[in-house]
């Protein structure tokens, strides 16, 4: 179940990261989710996603980088 949640979270992160690049416009930090009365902003989501994928890149063996990213 944790892998499924991680995959869903990674998918959302990628979607939001790519959406910002495709638009090419500056944006006002917006709310993307509310969890237990805590607001999660787009910038927080992007930063968490960036850190998540940087950790994967740092830990994955060179020949298995693509596989590790797909798995994440």
Descriptive account of the structure:
This protein has 72 residues and is of the alpha+beta class. The chain has one domain. 65% of the residues lie in helices and 12% in strands. It is built from three helices and two strands. It has a two-stranded antiparallel sheet with strand order 1-2. A hairpin with a 2-residue loop joins β1 and β2. The radius of gyration is 14 Å and the shape is elongated. The two termini are 13 Å apart. The model has no long low-confidence stretch (mean pLDDT 77).
Based on the model shown, name its key terms.
72 residues, two-stranded antiparallel ribbon, 3 helices
Write the layout of secondary structure elements.
Elements: H1 2-23, E1 31-35, E2 38-41, H2 42-59, H3 65-71
Antiparallel strand pairs: 1-2
Helix pairs in contact: 1-2
Compact overview of the structure:
65% of the residues lie in helices and 12% in strands. The chain has 72 residues and is of the alpha+beta class.
The largest sheet has its strands arranged as: 1-2
- Main pleated sheet: 2 strands, antiparallel
Low-confidence stretches: none
Count of folded domains: 1
- Average predicted local confidence, pLDDT: 77
- What is the chain-wise order of helices and strands? HEEHH
Radius of gyration: 14 Å
**Distance linking N and C termini:** 13 Å
User: Could you estimate the helical fraction of the residues in percent?
Assistant: 55-70%
User: How many helices?
Assistant: 3
The best one-word shape is: elongated
Percent in strands:
5-15%
* β-strand number: 2
Helix/strand-derived category reads: alpha+beta
